[in-house]
Structures are given as C-alpha cells and as structure tokens.
Amino acid sequence: MHGYDKHAYEPFAVTVDLAVLTLRAGALHVLLVERGQEPYAGRWALPGGFLLPEESAETAARRELAEETGLADVTGLHLEQLRTYSEPGRDPRMRVVSVAFAALLPHPPEPRGGGDASQARWVPYDAAADLAFDHDRILADARDRVGAKLEYTCLATAFCPPEFTLGELQQVYETVWGTALDRPNFRRKVLATPGFVEAVPGAARLTGGRGKPAALYRAGPATTLHPPLLRTPREGRPA
Amino acid sequence: MHGYDKHAYEPFAVTVDLAVLTLRAGALHVLLVERGQEPYAGRWALPGGFLLPEESAETAARRELAEETGLADVTGLHLEQLRTYSEPGRDPRMRVVSVAFAALLPHPPEPRGGGDASQARWVPYDAAADLAFDHDRILADARDRVGAKLEYTCLATAFCPPEFTLGELQQVYETVWGTALDRPNFRRKVLATPGFVEAVPGAARLTGGRGKPAALYRAGPATTLHPPLLRTPREGRPA
DNA sequence: CCAAAAGTGTTGGGCCTACACCCATGT
DNA sequence: ACATGGGTGTAGGCCCAACACTTTTGG
C-alpha cells in the first residue's frame, strides 16, 4: 500500500462469490447456478462474478445475484462478508481473487437462470457437492459461520419473513444446527433477550394448519445476544 | 466468475493491510509505519503492500510484515483474515482492493523501518488515530474482532509467549476488554475448559519480581471455548 | 373428542459470582 | 514483618434444562 511504482504490482481479477442460504421445507438450501462456460462448464457453482470498476464488493454481490438468478430487490436479504480466497491456482486459467459472501433470505422465490448461468436452482445443502472451483470450501465456511453466528447474534431473524412466529424462529436454529431445542426454554430465552424480537400486538397466525394460532413477532433492534443462545443439543434430530 | 470475456472485467490492484496487535506494559499496542511516499506521505498507516503474482493474501501478509518492519519469522504470530475493503475511492489515485488481517503476537520485538516505510513503531492503541486511507476503520474493526473472539475462542494464548502464567493470560483479557476480572474465577474457568491450556509440569516463574512463583502453562489443542468466557465486567479498570 | 401446536408453571441441580483465606517469595 | 502475587475453599444466588400442564385451534 506504499509504493506506487507501476511495475511493483500485478493486476488481478477480482470477483465475488455468494453462498445464498435459505430454509425450504425444514431443510437448509443453497442457491446454485449451472455454469454455461468453461472452465467447469456444466458444473454447479455458487453465483458470482467480476467487480465492475466503480463497485464495492457488496454492491457487486447484489448485482450478480440479481443478474444470474433473477432475485432482484429481495426484501430482507442479509449480506455478510465471509472472507477472501486468494490462493494462486484456484481458477485454472487466470489469477482471480474472490471475495465471498454469505447471504440469508427468508421466503425463497424460485430463481431463473440469467447472465452467464444456464440455470439457477435451490439445492439442499447436503446435496451440494462437487462444485466448481473451491466453492465446496466456501460453502462449508458459510455454513460454519452462520451456525456460529446464530449463537451470539440476532442473525436468525434474517431467515424469517418480516413477521414470524417463535416456532418459525426455533426451526431456523434447529435446521441450521441440526439439533432439537426445548420449545418452552427457547421461547423464554428469546423473550428474555432485550431487543431480539418485538411482539406484533394482536397479531396471530396458524402455522401447521392445526393447533393454537401463534403470536407474531418482528426482528428487534438488537444485533448481538447477551447472553448467547448456546448450542446445547438434545440427542434427537428433527425434520 | 463465469464469463471470461477479457473486456468483462477490470483489473484491480490487490493489497494486504495488517493490524498487528500486541501487549506492552499492560496496554494494547499496534504496529504502525510512517509512509515514505505519496499519497499520505509522512502519515502513519498500517503496514501492508501489494500482492505478488504467485502469492496468496496470507503469504503476502507475512512477507510485507517482514519487509516493512523487520519482524521476520516471528514465533507465535497469529494471522487472521479480518475482511476485505473494496469501496471505490478508498485510495485516492487508483482502484485498490485490500484484504485486511489482524495479527497478534506475544513478545514484541522492536521493529525497524524498511521497504516503503520510513520508520516502524509500536503505538498505544488509543494514540493511533488519523491514519492514512481507511486504516482507522480497519484498526477499529480489528480490535472489535479480537475482543469478541476472546470470548469464544482460545485466541488469547496468541498474545502470550509459548509458556505463560495464568496471570499473564488474564492480563490479556483485562487489557483488550478494558475490564477487571476476578482472579480465582478466571483461573477456574480456564482450567475447566478442556484443551484451553496445558500445565507444564514442575515449571514456575516469578512474574512481578515478588510473590509466589506462578505455574506455567502452554496453549492447548482446543480452538473454541465451551462454554464461552463472557465479558461480564466488574466496575474497575486496572492498569 | 382427539391431535397438534402454542404457551405457562415449577422444580432441582449446576454453575458462577463474590469474597475469605492460605501459600510462597522478595525486601 | 509485610507487601505482593499465586492459588484454594465456599456459600448464596441465579440461571436453566427438563418435564408437566393448560390453552386454542382443526378434523
């Protein structure tokens, strides 16, 4: 960052890659695109693409998501920088430095292919393997990070629609962590954390078609959880 | 990441910036260099520099640290990627994307200037302001991240020499957090966390010149703390 | 009436804060 | 002897996991 001799540095291509996660039918899903060009043509990959000259990585991430998947202006999209992958050789034909993002969204619209992607699709997390480039690793890092941040931040609400029930919020934890939680205790912990959720007065909704209608909540102003909601699993694994 | 049309992307300069933190005389210090060239000539900045063609960001970070400060092959250097700063305009004369790292080290050797830096120096964290570029922000982000990771990882040992006393480990927490901790309880928490520290049999060392010699410990194999060591401050603020 | 889902109550145990106290060393 | 820092013990309280129980809906 100090010498500006034009020969002192080499230009790199800079890209963004997105691990877009959501919950569908009680299972964690990731948004994948099928590559239309070499290298890795026909293989599945994380959506992403090159930075434009006047874009930050965050801006490029939102643009690429819209272009390649049709998910434009998604309400409630949570974007978070994961880390940057810069190993030489991670792209077989040129030097590419990639800024990876994890993105969470609540209600998943059906994506469509576009841009360089021949098609885009929601894939169950466990079925997403053998991705192009080092995307297997990026995806695994994203899941680890999201799982860890559920413990000590309010991130879980990013998986939920604007108004949600505590049962839905609990399902986020159970699905991402792969553990069952005690409902009464979960409710008390959440409600005891100031600013985590806010009650929507008078509102209620039926969830499973049966049972008592659940009260609705909105995400509160807090961003961190004190104390954290620790991953103390029971044995079972629900849907 | 999908089209390889040579006109579809713009090359960027890619750099690394390092927030190197250590403890000196019970206070958090950061390693700064004085810039020898425009822009920001004469201003203090975080050490850093351009990636070479065959380097990962991690490799470049270690190389730049050695070149600009003389800190080569520092034993126990902990390097951790912070995030990437890519806003257009963060460098006044060209488009630069910078991968920032936080680095922690135990015993701070006296650095020397070198490379593009006219001098390098340890500066108390609170005195490090008005840095070049967006380095104020990077430094603040580094401190936040380190403080948070002390809670739920074994990171604190990265501030300590290979063999350390529990009192020294506690000082790490107290200095970074700016809070006083209860010594008996701190000791029990640390020893109760499997894999956090390992006793060095029979070894002991005097710390303050006076008092009972303290038993020595090594960093253990664990990387995360279960349960976490939460920041529950008492009122005081010690040295 | 039954099943299913939301929500409340309660209890016993464990952890942890706060503090008192003992140990070893230098001056 | 005393100051200084390391290390142990312990009591009270808070937190919380576990589970029983009530409430409200659809079939």
Q: Tell me the fraction of residues in β-strands of chain A, as a range.
A: 25-35%
Structural class of chain A: alpha+beta
| Rg of chain A (C-alpha, Å) | 20 Å
Mean pLDDT of chain A: 88
Domain Nudix hydrolase (chains A, B): 11-145
Family (chains A, B): Belongs to the Nudix hydrolase family.
Keywords (chains A, B): Hydrolase
Pfam family, one (chains A, B): NUDIX
Give the gist of this structure.
The structure is a homodimer of 239-residue chains. With 239 residues, chain A is α+β, with helices and mostly antiparallel strands.
Task: Describe the protein.
Two copies of one chain form a homodimer. Chain A has 239 residues and is of the alpha+beta class. Chain A folds into two domains: 13-150, Nucleoside Triphosphate Pyrophosphohydrolase (Alpha-Beta Complex); 153-219, Arc Repressor Mutant, subunit A, CATH 1.10.10.10. Helix content of chain A is 22%, strand content 28%. In chain A, strand 8 and strand 9 form a beta hairpin. The longest helix of chain A is centred in the middle third of the chain and has 18 residues, at 135-152. Chain A binds a DNA duplex (27 and 27 nucleotides) through residues 165-167, 182-185, 187-189, 204, 206-215, 227, 232, 234. Chains A, B: Keywords: Hydrolase. Chains A, B: Pfam families: NUDIX, WHD_NrtR. Chains A, B: InterPro entries: Nudix_hydrolase (IPR020476), NUDIX_hydrolase-like_dom_sf (IPR015797), NUDIX_hydrolase_CS (IPR020084), NUDIX_hydrolase_dom (IPR000086), WH-like_DNA-bd_sf (IPR036388), WH_DNA-bd_sf (IPR036390), WHD_NrtR (IPR054105).
